[in-house]
Design brief:
Blueprint lengths: L18 E2 L5 E2 L7 H9 L8 H14 L4 H5 L2 H7 L5 H4 L4 H8 L8 H15 L4 H7 L21 H12 L7 H10 L11 H6 L2
Helix pairs in contact: 2-7, 2-8, 2-10, 9-10
Length: 207
């Protein structure tokens, strides 16, 4: 993501701690602000993601989110998957000018030429990686013993690890992968656990 604090960073203020939802479960405040967020927060965000194609999807979605709310991306996720061949690196790497025009006409995604072209360029960069995208990204996993944040204000926007990850990705030819976007990727894919200390998901992940 391009915004600081937690991944979607919606309405809750920086000092907001976990909140109790209508189901009685305590969540990071953003995770209880809409049904789409609640499902994503409880089932995906912060859980380890592995596999080159799976991580490529997250890299692309984080880039498309830049300047937008995360819920906009969540609600178009299936459209993105359809438009980008399930985010299979080998297939997206073969996209050409006709695919760019096709995607620019696709109302199921965010129609931004620079981001579409970046996704294709990133697929080509990922295809050429020695060892694969999974190995590159997971080299920058955060310290698992870092104290759990108690409020959203304690969650960083960037870290030394995210800065290093962004630099490594850019060196390999990736686009739209600044340090803040890289940190959001790390949060989303479980390289760090930024669920708040009293969030029920954090408790489940640390059992």
């Amino acid at each position: 993501m391009t915004e600081p604090l937690t991944e979607p960073l919606t309405e809750p203020r920086a000092g907001t701690g976990a909140v109790v939802g209508p189901d009685g479960l305590r969540r990071c405040a953003w995770g209880d602000s809409a049904d789409d967020y609640r499902v994503y927060h409880d089932t995906e965000w912060g859980r380890p993601v592995h596999g080159d194609d799976a991580l490529f999807e997250r890299v692309c979605l984080e880039a498309f989110q830049s300047g937008l709310s995360w819920i906009t991306i969540l609600r178009r996720r299936e459209g993105f998957r359809a438009g980008f061949a399930g985010f299979e690196i080998a297939r997206v790497a073969e996209f050409g000018p006709a695919d760019v025009e096709r995607l620019l006409a696709d109302t199921g995604i965010i129609r931004n030429r620079a981001k579409i072209e970046a996704a294709i360029a990133n697929a080509r960069a990922a295809r050429e990686l020695d060892g694969g995208l999974d190995a590159l990204i997971w080299r920058f996993a955060g310290d698992p013993d870092r104290p759990a944040p108690r409020t959203m204000g304690e969650v960083p926007a960037i870290t030394p690890e995210s800065t290093a990850l962004a630099k490594a990705l850019k060196k390999e030819g990736f686009r739209f992968v600044g340090p803040t976007t890289a940190y959001a990727l790390m949060q989303a894919c479980g390289l760090v656990d930024d669920h708040l200390a009293d969030c029920h998901v954090r408790a489940a992940l640390t059992r």
